[in-house]
Amino acid sequence: VEVTQDNFWFDMSGRKLMTKQLTDSEILEKQERLDSLEQDCSTGSLGTPEEQKQKIDALLARARARKTKLSQ
Amino acid sequence: VAEFFDNDVERVYGTRFGDNLAIIASLAENALTAPETFRGVRDKEGRLQAGAIVHQESDCLEVDYLATAPWNILLHQPESLKGAGTSLMEALVKESIDLGKGGRLKVYAIPRAKQFYINIGLTETDGGEMELTPEAALGFLEEQRQFRERGGDSR
């Protein structure tokens, strides 16, 4: 998209931010792309495979205990 | 685990769901020991849909852990919500701005999550972390605003 006086925009302090306003379809397309990627949005250290297993086992054990407690 | 992995936890390790659970475990541990570092987004029914652990650096807000709820990883779950992670990132950008850090964020994305953050506008640094610059932060907020303005959000 060619940058013109009409299609760039500013923040509240008047600083130029982007080169163009996105069209409706571009906005929706970007959001759909983000939504499709969002299953993989984890951040942080996974640790070693063994650490991961320990973490998962502990988490699942807590979840099972909670489920049991709630069902009683 | 019962429904999707035949109750075999061995099959969970190393999968997208396994990575999510491992991060949630670390996130929960940190939230319990330092609750002031926890940030989360809830849906209209009050269910926690995504969470993060953050701390302030001199020039940015650093995200130590971030994960969407496990039911958002699995298909066709009644509790699942699209956009929880994006909404949480939006809230963190706003917090960074409120803290005077210009929207600057730093995250340590797991390998399979890098593309999500690239699409938000983060860039990978030489140190392996990913950063959102103030300019990219404002661009991301503006895109989210435009998306909502056009009726595209039921979150």
What does this structure look like?
The complex is a heterodimer of chains A (72) and B (155). With 72 residues, chain A is mainly alpha-helical. Chain A has a two-stranded antiparallel ribbon with strand order 1-2. Chain A starts with 8 loop residues before the first strand and ends with a helix. In chain A, 19% of the residues are buried. Helices cover 39% and strands 19% of the residues of chain B. Chain B has 5 helices and 6 strands, in the order ααβββαβαββα. The longest helix of chain B has 18 residues. Chain B starts with a helix and ends in a 6-residue tail after the last helix. Chains A and B meet through α1 and α2 of A and α2, β2, β3, α3 and α4 of B.
Total beta strands of chain A? 2
Largest sheet of chain B: 6 strands, mixed
Strand order of the largest sheet of chain A: 1-2
Task: State the shape of chain B.
Answer: globular
What is the helical fraction of chain B, as a range of percent? 25-40%
Radius of gyration of chain A, Cα only, in angstroms? 23 Å
The biggest beta sheet of chain A, please? 2 strands, antiparallel
Q: What global shape of chain A is seen?
A: elongated
Distance between the termini of chain B: 27 Å
H/E element sequence of chain A: EEHH
Please state the average pLDDT score of chain B: 91
Largest sheet: spatial strand order of chain B: 1-2-3-4-6-5
Strand content of chain B: 15-25%
